[in-house]
């Protein structure tokens, strides 16, 4: 565990030193909170979505995060253009297929984006099951109703199919490259009562991808960092309103002592 | 009053147990805060607005909230499709006609949506007057400049015309089905200094409509709940920044003791 | 300095008494936080962007703020229509050219809007340099990497070219009408870790333009007010999450005593 603590701390320091520009094409609900989480950690967020400029913008960014939470046609066009360009430029990118399985549109768009080839897919168990074409009877919007463990094998398949890393987030987060599997046991139950913390996790994966060459490591470190910040914030918070605020403060204050809570195995 | 306290508490418990999926087509300003209010209360929010998927999405939701705060053509199309489908599926839905009367576009869209047949219309006094085609000299954007009492008769008319429940929110909230009239005397003056608490009230009406068969009851309970949470938060807050946070915590912590503050008559 | 304190306090009181309606066409990331800042100060915000209604809406507003943070074609159309109408109606308006220089689209749109003739342009040093056609090697998204001092001469040029006031925000804010130059030395370093405080500054410039006839004065007072509120909030905050909240409370509580911190020269 000590090795993981040191490794996560080194990743955090690299983000703070490098201040990587993370290009987000994300949903309206979480734009403010994910930008703030990236800033609190030490990265530099930008939210840019027009088809006319996304390809040029991603060229000056260090990584890209595509989140399909609030879809519409012009955004889908921009997402596809930008993801394709990111691959051409060898910029790492994260796909967050919010609500895949809930409507045919979401399933189609998620599949198309996955086929372009993300570096990391981060999703909850229902979404991983839907994307892995495993029938998930419970997908309804953005909540996960499947325990994350049930999605481990579908996640491995998905990682092998798309040659990417897959993160299944839940009470325990599982991170796999189709071969290796890491479990991250950080977080706080009240985090499920704050909107968009899954989206925030995806944004942090984007930040760590900009500084860590191994996407399995980047993804695991990001999940540990948001989990630890959530634990610290949860312990100080009377409810989800204060948790949202305290989480940003915890990301800002994060140091090696706080990271002693990291549980990656 | 004791009966109302118990009834509101039962409604809250039904939301927490049932975790109804509330489909929101709402404005950009409040998406994050209304999603958080629904989560804090115990409901499950989703923000989905593409014309390509709203009809399918509302089919898996328990209720729908349409808020015209930040209008544009593609959203208007989606709102009309989704409201029509909600009626076909007998899903209850709320119309929040933000700024009706301020521009011809808002007046036209609000009228069209009202004619589709919402279950509840929640608006401030200026908006109710405008929608009831009573000339309101003061409508300017989203603030109410008319005392809510002056809108009681127009609200009754509106409720009769559209066979729906109308909520006029203000220092006192009035709720009418065109016949019965309830007054809800909860809330805190500082709530007018936080953006989107009217929109949040509409979202909570959506949550209660999912668990209470009588829309008059659902609407009154929602207004009481946000009012009580606002009172608790206001008493703890140095300004509107902390009020916004404490309101979410208060919704999360709401119990029968806190609800002793309910003033419905 | 005492004169400035009294003058800023008078401006704040005018905003609180007049409650000017500030029309914002701004980016998705900051809509909620800028609306809340305007409300906390005492102004009345509205976020309205549809081409079908912006010209009618600006007619009932006291001032306009155009911020290009999250551009797309329909919004560009609305921005141009609305800015043109504002000039016809002699309503003051602010241009916040977020990320100008980062992509050709942003540079083109910023130039077009500047040519329409804003009352005030508020930008960081990189953006002022880009807009003044001074090559800025470091523009990357919305962060400023140039010290604001280096942009003073380009800002003067820009102010002369467009016959407007230019604010270069940074650790020290510079405000010029092309002739006179004011320096505002308020603010807190942690403000750079909260998303959209530059956008919030632009929104406050909009509020002060509604009550102060001299745009140089309005812009300097707005920068002093957000700086002072940031100082008060920063001193109370463990991180950027609490700073964002405390800033709203500080704007709400702002009085002549707090404004003794004003440093305009």
From TrEMBL, chains A, B, C:
Catalysed reactions, as listed in the record: 5-(2-hydroxyethyl)-4-methylthiazole + ATP = 4-methyl-5-(2-phosphooxyethyl)-thiazole + ADP + H(+)
| Source organism superkingdom | Bacteria
Which InterPro entries would you find in this protein's record? Hyethyz_kinase (IPR000417), Ribokinase-like (IPR029056)
Give an example GO molecular function: hydroxyethylthiazole kinase activity
Q: Which cofactor does it need?
A: Mg(2+)
Question: Is the keyword Glycosyltransferase in the record?
Answer: no
Residues annotated for ATP binding in this entry: 122, 169
Binding positions (substrate): 47, 196
Its pathway is: Cofactor biosynthesis; thiamine diphosphate biosynthesis; 4-methyl-5-(2-phosphoethyl)-thiazole from 5-(2-hydroxyethyl)-4-methylthiazole: step 1/1
Q: What does this protein do?
A: Catalyzes the phosphorylation of the hydroxyl group of 4-methyl-5-beta-hydroxyethylthiazole (THZ).
Q: What is this protein called?
A: Hydroxyethylthiazole kinase
């Amino acid at each position: 565990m000590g090795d993981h603590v040191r490794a996560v701390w080194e990743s955090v320091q690299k983000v703070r030193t490098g201040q990587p520009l993370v290009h987000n094409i994300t949903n309206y609900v979480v734009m403010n909170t994910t930008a703030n989480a990236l800033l609190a950690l030490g990265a530099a967020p930008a939210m840019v979505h027009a088809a006319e400029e996304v390809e040029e913008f991603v060229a000056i960014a260090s990584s890209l995060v595509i989140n399909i939470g609030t879809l519409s046609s012009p955004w889908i066009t921009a997402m596809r253009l930008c993801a394709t360009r990111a691959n051409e430029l060898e910029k790492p990118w994260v796909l967050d297929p919010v609500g895949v399985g809930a409507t045919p549109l979401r399933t189609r768009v998620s599949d198309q984006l996955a086929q372009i080839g993300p570096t990391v897919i981060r999703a909850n168990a229902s979404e991983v099951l839907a994307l892995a074409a495993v029938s998930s009877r419970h997908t309804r919007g953005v909540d996960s109703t499947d325990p994350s463990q049930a999605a481990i094998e579908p996640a491995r398949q998905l990682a092998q199919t798309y040659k990417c890393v897959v993160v299944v987030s839940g009470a325990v987060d599982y991170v796999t490259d189709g071969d290796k599997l890491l479990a991250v046991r950080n977080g706080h139950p009240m985090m499920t009562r704050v909107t968009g913390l899954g989206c925030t996790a995806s944004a942090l994966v984007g930040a760590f991808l900009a500084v860590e060459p191994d996407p399995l490591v980047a993804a695991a470190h990001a999940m540990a960092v948001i989990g630890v910040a959530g634990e610290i914030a949860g312990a100080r918070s009377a409810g989800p309103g204060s948790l949202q605020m305290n989480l940003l403060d915890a990301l800002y204050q994060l140091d090696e002592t706080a990271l002693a809570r990291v549980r990656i195995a």
